[in-house]
Write a sequence for this structure.
């Protein structure tokens, strides 16, 4: 007896959709001005000029667009600014996620340090900070960094709206599924044959 011929099937192509990063996501991940000021004061860190950072980045991108306006058409300018603003927003979001992880680690280390029965979490020798304190200080530094990048992203988004005349939204590439397009065309051709 012969075995039935097996047809080789191509594995299905899985297209992973990645949610585009929005300014709202950045605002959820990064501290606002009030929280950044509180963190600065609590840890003895410099208080950032949030409005100054935002305004500087807004002016910088507007001036850049003005200098390019002779060489770029309207659509080319929009695409160029879309990419620049997307980079600012993506950078701020990444910093916000890193900050969130640092806060979680600081909270975990602080909770462990409050347990009197754990020797490994006790304070170090005199003059050295405990591991929990170092993690809290690191989280505070990350808070200021992510806040500064948030302000830069907000300035970039405001500049985009000023130059282009519409609100910025992340670029989303249309789903490319050529097999589906061919199937649809074949179906239309077949249905057309029925009259």
């Amino acid at each position: 007896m012969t075995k039935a011929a097996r047809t080789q099937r191509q594995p299905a192509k899985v297209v992973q959709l990645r949610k585009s990063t929005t300014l709202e996501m950045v605002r959820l991940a990064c501290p606002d001005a009030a929280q950044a000021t509180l963190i600065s004061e609590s840890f003895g860190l410099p208080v950032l000029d949030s409005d100054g950072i935002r305004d500087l980045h807004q002016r910088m991108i507007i001036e850049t667009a003005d200098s390019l306006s002779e060489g770029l058409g309207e659509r080319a300018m929009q695409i160029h600014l879309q990419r620049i603003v997307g980079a600012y927003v993506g950078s701020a979001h990444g910093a916000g996620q890193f900050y969130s992880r640092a806060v979680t680690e600081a909270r975990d280390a602080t909770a462990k340090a409050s347990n009197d029965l754990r020797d490994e979490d006790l304070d170090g020798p005199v003059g050295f900070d405990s591991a929990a304190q170092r993690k809290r200080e690191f989280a505070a530094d990350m808070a200021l960094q992510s806040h500064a990048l948030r302000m830069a992203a907000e300035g970039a988004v405001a500049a985009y709206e000023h130059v282009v005349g519409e609100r910025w939204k992340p670029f989303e590439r249309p789903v490319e599924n050529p097999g589906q397009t061919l199937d649809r065309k074949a179906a239309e051709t077949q249905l057309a044959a029925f009259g």
Remarks:
- The first helix runs from residue 23 to 29.
- Residues 28-171 form one domain.
- The chain has one domain: 28-171.
